[in-house]
Amino acid sequence: MSRSLILGACLSSLVLLAAAVSFVWTPYDYTALNIPDKLQPPNAQHWFGTDHFGRDMFSMIMVGARTSIAVALVAVGIGMALGVPLGLTAAARKGSALDELIMRGNDLVFAFPSLVIAILITAVFGAGAINAIIAIGIFNIPVFARITRGAALSLWEREFILAARVSGKGAARISAEHILPNVANLLIVQGTIQFSLGILAEAGLSYVGLGAQPPTPSWGRMLADAQTMVSFAPHLALIPGLAIIVTVLGLNLLGDGLRDWLDPRIRVART
């Protein structure tokens, strides 16, 4: 395994561990206000300091990791669950009206950034984590559809697919039994990358007030609350910013490492 895979796995595991532990334990109640202790710098009692309401920053970072991971994970799941079948269908019907409809629909979704989609959804249903998940998930659908279609098209010309067609298997069965297992490695790597982008998107939506709503902590909202206090309490912005950087860096390194580890051509070249 490459160094990037090991380092990415360690950083990602650290964030996942913090999110998992937050379900059963945090150093302090992240919803409890303690005004006399507000804006404390990192110290022995509050490892990451306190915010402008006296809440423990370390506890909020732990719960914020849970929020970011949950939103990104479900959004990527939505993208894969809908995008992969669409991509397989488009590849199986290459050149047909259905293929053209799916790909032009992907282009239409790509024309609207996830933030714009989130604003439209929020205008109808209101702000919240669920709407952020829907917005990010919608944006992930064409990503996985394009990746799946591109990888599947090259496989449809292979000899083992021709043998499956000669044996009487239909397009749907071939896609499920032969195409999907052969593009799974690519989808795993792309899913890791989209997961990191989902965390960035969730932080961006929360920053503008369209993500998780108070009192649920979110790294993006923590950055938004800290922007007017950077000059005298820089830890309020540095700590959630570093949390986002570490998480995204770990996931990107993990994705690069998985790509190298799962690609047999790279393994052979290194050997």
H/E topology pattern: HHHHHHHHHH
What percent strand? under 5%
How would the global form be characterised? elongated
Percent in helix: over 70%
* Count of helical stretches: 10
Structural class call reads mainly alpha
Distance between the termini: 12 Å
Plain-language structure description:
This protein is mostly helical and 271 residues long. Helix content is 72%, strand content 0%. It has helices spanning 3-21, 57-92, 97-110, 114-125, 129-155, 159-166, 171-207, 219-226, 235-262, 264-270. The longest helix is centred in the last third of the chain and has 37 residues, at 171-207. The model has no long low-confidence stretch (mean pLDDT 90).
Itemize the secondary structure elements and their pairings.
Layout: H1 3-21, H2 57-92, H3 97-110, H4 114-125, H5 129-155, H6 159-166, H7 171-207, H8 219-226, H9 235-262, H10 264-270
Helix pairs in contact: 1-2, 1-9, 2-3, 2-5, 2-7, 3-5, 4-5, 5-7, 7-8, 7-9, 8-9
